Amino acid sequence: MKTTINVSFCAIHCIQRTPHSDLIEAGASTFASAGKKPLSLLAISLCFSIIGAGVALGEGAFYGDPPSDTHPWAIHDLNRPQPPRVEPGTPSTQELSGKPPSDAIILFDGTPKSIAKWESVKEPRQPAPWKVENGVLQVVPGSGDIGTLEAFGDCQFHIEWSAPTGVNGSSQARSNSGVFFAGGVEVQILDNYDNPTSPDGFAGSVYGVNPPHANPLHPPGQWQVYDIIFRRPVFKDGKMLDGGRLTVTVNGVVVQDSTPLEGGGGHKSRSKDRPFPETGPLKLQDHGNPIRFRNIWYRTLPKRAVEGGDIGAMDPAAATSKKLEIANNIRLDAETKQGDERLLRLMESLCYATDAATIQTIETDLAKWTKAAKDTPPNEMEAKKESIMKMFRAVRYLTKFGFYPDAGDCKPVLMQIVLSNGWDPR
Ligand code: MG
After folding, report:
1. What is the pLDDT of residues 366-396, one digit of tens each?
2. How far is the CA of 413 from the centre of ligand 1 (A)?
3. Contact 312/304 with Cβ under 8 angstroms?
4. How far is the CA of 13 from the centre of ligand 1 (A)?
5. How far is the CA of 187 from the centre of ligand 1 (A)?
6. CATH number attached to the domain at 105-307
7. pLDDT tens figures, 215-249
């Protein structure tokens, strides 16, 4: 139903805004009222170019702009994989820990079992020396940082922490901890509820790089919620392809918005852009304060185009390779189909990559198909309308974008059928 509404809106919109639309309607009406007689090739060609320039409608394939040199998918491409289903979690309250989303890797859920996923950083392969009590993980001051046994890369990371209520110390000495991502970049944990300090060492800062945009902390003793999106720097052959970035929300407030890592920051010294490992342990800092933690989880993020993923614009070589993969998959799918469906799938594959054998098959089958359509008795024509319109739009799309310029006689013949039956060619 939604598609129908959108298509209808689009049709109306196109008619309203397309300068050629009156001409198309007038032309179509004239052709249709011409007693369904053969049309001149000149008139058909004129109508084709007008429609091709201003109006394109359809469903599924042959609809939006086709793949480009750097984008392997068409606009609104139904060959693109559907997003995987994830059951959403529930938010935490001060009293109760929330539930992570269904695909999260749980790093601490309050059980003694989950602390087994962590180790001592001072003494690798030794158990994490922090305390688990009443479903809460607590820093044992002086015992050292803890790190995950498993290595992680780009991620969505969730952690909740709480500073002790007895306020001790000031500035960086008040309830300090931190989350370290692969390669060592720290998102600062600090009780800054009423505690001025160096802004680039504030709670929610990328430590030594960038202060948070705001201070939305609750008072000490309450739970603070950090949600962090980490994208590591990507280097190849010594050249930086992506400097990496961090996005952080503190208690639902954005405090870092795609902040460039600039090497990841550090204490006293200005850091420089540098490569990070693809993956590394997540670490929590023991800075000598008994910070408490709960509800720690992690979700893997898909690869960016610069590291071989297909998110966003790709380099032309990678896009070409992906388009070939898509074309081959469509051709394999075509072999599972018959009749119009098979022919249309083969035609669709040309939008991604050309192939001599496929073109030969299309040439033969489309010529037969078009002849059969042309020879359809007038009293059976209406029953074939949907099928003919679908093929007509596919041919128009492929020729418009140059994927199959040699559609031969098929294009004008199909147009003639459409117009002489009074069908709307849009
Ligand atoms: Mg810290």
Report:
1. 999 999 999 999 999 999 999 999 999 999 9
2. 73
3. yes
4. 56
5. 8
6. 2.60.120.560
7. 999 999 999 999 999 999 999 999 999 999 999 99
